[in-house]
Structures are given as C-alpha cells and as structure tokens.
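Duplicate of #3305? Posting structure anyway:
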C-alpha cells in the first residue's frame, strides 16, 4: 500500500476545574485530535484520537489503549481510526516523538505553564505519514 500524508490537530481538551480560575494545580488531563487525509477531514469533524494523562482513569472506549507514549500518556482510537487500527497506529507512530514531547511537558506543567502549553498545543499541527487507506 502506498504511503500518504496526514495532518492531525488537537480539537478539544479536558483540564481540572478550579472555580477561581487558573491556580497552581491547573493542568491538562486529556485532549482529542482530528485527522485529515488528502485535504479532507476523516469523518467530518469527528475526533479520531484521544490522549490522556497517565493518572487519568480510563473507562468505556478509553479502556482499549492502542498505544502508550514514552511520556506515559495513553492513546485510544475513535471513528475511522478505530475501524482501521493498524493504519491508525502507523500514522500515530510517525508522530510519536512529537506527541511524546508535548505530553511530557503537559505531565509536569501546572498553573500558567499549563495555559502556555495549551495555547502551543492547540495551535500545533502534527504532520504524519501512513498507509494511503482512505481515498
């Protein structure tokens, strides 16, 4: 199978909630990503990947971890990626170093560092390669 380019982008996230705003304990707990192939979003705007912090409870669809990053963060698949996990894993493995770097920072970021990291993460695109499965 030929290889093609994918673009993954963070779409939404989950942070611990503090009623007083950003405190010293404020941190990123998980985030979701969409995927684009051949200039088109896979599944419209549906998420394809969920990444969670090592200490976050996994329930439901998050119990089936597809990949562990070196940072300790877990990765689960959704929608098109869940229907073709072998393809999704090749795509994700091509950006594993970049995902590991940002999630390692997220593991230790607290307070305003989390806010800075969040802005960085949600402005990032992750250029991946993988099998040309979705045409």
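Output from current build:
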């Amino acid at each position: 199978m030929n290889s093609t380019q994918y673009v993954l982008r963070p779409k939404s996230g989950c942070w611990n909630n503090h009623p007083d705003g950003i405190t010293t304990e404020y941190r990123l707990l998980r985030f979701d990503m969409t995927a684009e192939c051949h200039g088109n979003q896979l599944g419209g705007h549906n998420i394809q990947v969920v990444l969670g912090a090592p200490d976050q409870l996994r329930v439901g669809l998050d119990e089936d971890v597809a990949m562990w990053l070196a940072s300790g963060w877990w990765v689960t698949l959704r929608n098109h990626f869940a229907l073709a996990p072998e393809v999704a894993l090749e795509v994700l493995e091509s950006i594993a170093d970049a995902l590991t770097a940002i999630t390692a920072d997220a593991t230790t970021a607290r307070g305003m560092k989390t806010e800075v990291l969040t802005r960085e993460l949600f402005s990032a695109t992750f250029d991946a390669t993988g099998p040309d499965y979705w045409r």
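Confirmed duplicate; merging threads. The two ends are 12 Å apart (CA to CA). Helices lie at 79-83, 85-93, 96-108, 112-122.
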